[in-house]
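Worked example 3 (structure in, sequence out).
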């Protein structure tokens, strides 16, 4: 099916900016703090003068007050490298519908439009954007760049993701393995934004967060968008009758009346969410709940406003 992202429907964030929380390594002067220091931009701090250094950077006014030689140290600003990472496994096609649009999105459609909106925001800020797509393997990797040709390539790859679920081409998920690969391939300090339903880590979150910690160890800032259907996946909100549930990734089936297990199911999902939040807090990872029943524009805007106040 031929699909084009409607640029007119992408989120409009007004004057909001997507600033890096931690130091990033960029390539031209921009909005974000760089780990490199020089003498050409914003003042950062003083440090003691070392014998033999050029005297042109000495703060003579401070010397007059303290009779000690201090050098002015500056901190340059840099453009951001943002790496978007999208889980494209079969479970992201839930819920399977005949018609997929912004009013009735599945998880993958929701993620594509949220990612495209961030691309537009980054483009406005003159920041570089890259893209990783994964299922059981890392299917696509494009490092962060900021050219028009590069952005066209990324949009093309995003548009290829929008398709109806093909039950004959099931794609499982290996999030842990793929995140380790991305951590090794994304060499610069970057902002890594991940869209996934986290369904391949139901038994043990520790391995997933070890992979996320790998990204943190490589000096990346990590934002985790947990994409889910709040009504069906989190609350098991179905009618009181028997259903046949099908695993989109394996084809396994389960027949039951969801009302009979609804209370215990909701309890387990709440415990799972608490565990995810605990791990994110421990590893200093931004966790964003992305319920596809809500407007993706609203979710992104709320997060950006919250982020601007915190950071």
């Amino acid at each position: 099916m031929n699909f084009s992202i409607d640029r007119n429907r992408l989120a409009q964030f007004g004057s909001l900016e997507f600033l890096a929380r931690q130091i990033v390594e960029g390539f031209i002067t921009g909005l974000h703090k760089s780990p490199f220091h020089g003498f050409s931009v914003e003042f950062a701090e003083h440090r003691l003068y070392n014998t033999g250094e050029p005297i042109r950077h000495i703060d003579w006014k401070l010397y007059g007050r303290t009779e000690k030689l201090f050098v002015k140290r500056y901190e340059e600003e840099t453009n951001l490298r943002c790496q978007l990472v999208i889980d494209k496994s079969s479970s992201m096609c839930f819920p399977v519908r005949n018609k997929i649009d912004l009013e009735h999105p599945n998880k993958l459609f929701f993620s594509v439009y949220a990612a495209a909106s961030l691309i537009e925001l980054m483009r406005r800020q003159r920041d570089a954007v890259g893209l990783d797509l994964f299922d059981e393997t890392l299917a696509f990797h494009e490092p962060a760049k900021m050219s028009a040709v590069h952005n066209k390539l990324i949009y093309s790859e995003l548009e290829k993701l929008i398709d109806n679920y093909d039950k004959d081409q099931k794609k499982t998920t290996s999030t842990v393995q793929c995140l380790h690969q991305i951590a090794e391939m994304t060499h610069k300090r970057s902002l890594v934004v991940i869209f996934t339903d986290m369904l391949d880590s139901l038994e043990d979150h520790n391995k997933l967060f070890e992979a996320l910690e790998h990204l943190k160890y490589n000096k990346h800032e990590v934002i985790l968008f947990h994409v889910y259907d709040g009504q069906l996946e989190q609350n098991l909100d179905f009618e009181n009758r028997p259903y046949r549930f099908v695993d989109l990734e394996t084809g396994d089936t389960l027949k039951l009346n969801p009302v009979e297990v609804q209370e215990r199911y909701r309890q387990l999902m709440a415990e799972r969410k608490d565990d995810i939040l605990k791990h994110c807090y421990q590893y200093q990872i931004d966790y964003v709940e992305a319920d596809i029943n809500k407007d993706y524009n609203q979710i992104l805007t709320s997060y950006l406003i919250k982020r601007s106040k915190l950071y």
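Notes: The longest helix spans residues 262-283. The longest strand covers residues 70-78.
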